[in-house]
Amino acid sequence: MSIKSLINIGIIVYFAFTTVTVFAETVVIEIKDSQYGNGEPVTVNVGTTVKWLNVEKRQYHSVWFEAEGFPEAEYIFPEETWERTFDKPGTYPYRCEPHEDMIGTIIVVE
Ligand SMILES: [Cu+2]
Q: Distance (Å, rounded) from C-alpha 62 to C-alpha 77?
């Protein structure tokens, strides 16, 4: 194989991984002390997967997109995660099903 084709393969591989990196971003939000992250809305790019990680000692929570009409969310127990990929721009409020005043917002931008 010539050096030129090796370089071409290298460029193709580089762009393949670059594309994957751009479109497969993952953001982790830790749930602790009955709060999502620092309590502020989180802004992500379209295509981002948001992963909620429960770092409580004992308390379970959930991530429920009630306003979108989703059925009740499954519980996330300590050390477990739950994730959702956001493919459309918009504002996505959510709450914890068992704890009514535990709320969060994901803002998805292009
Ligand atoms: Cu909760």
A: 8
Confidence of residue 17 (pLDDT cuts 50, 70, 90): low
Phi and psi at 11, nearest 5°, equal -65, -40
39-67 confidence digits (pLDDT tens): 999 999 999 999 999 999 999 999 999 99
Instruction: Give the 3-state secondary structure of residue 8.
Output: helix
Give the model's confidence band at 11: pLDDT under 50 very low, under 70 low, under 90 confident, else very high: very low
Q: Which CATH class is domain 25-109?
A: mainly beta
- Cα 84 to averaged position of ligand 1 atoms, centre (Å): 17
Rounded-to-integer distance, Cα 50 and Cα 44, Å: 8
Q: How far is the CA of 14 from the centre of ligand 1 (A)?
A: 42
* Sequence ranges of the domains in the chain: 25-109
Q: What spacing in Å lies between the alpha carbon of 54 and ligand 1's midpoint? A: 10
Q: Order of strands across the sheet with 103-109?
A: 42-45, 103-109, 90-95
Ligand 1 geometric centre to CA of 50 (Å): 17
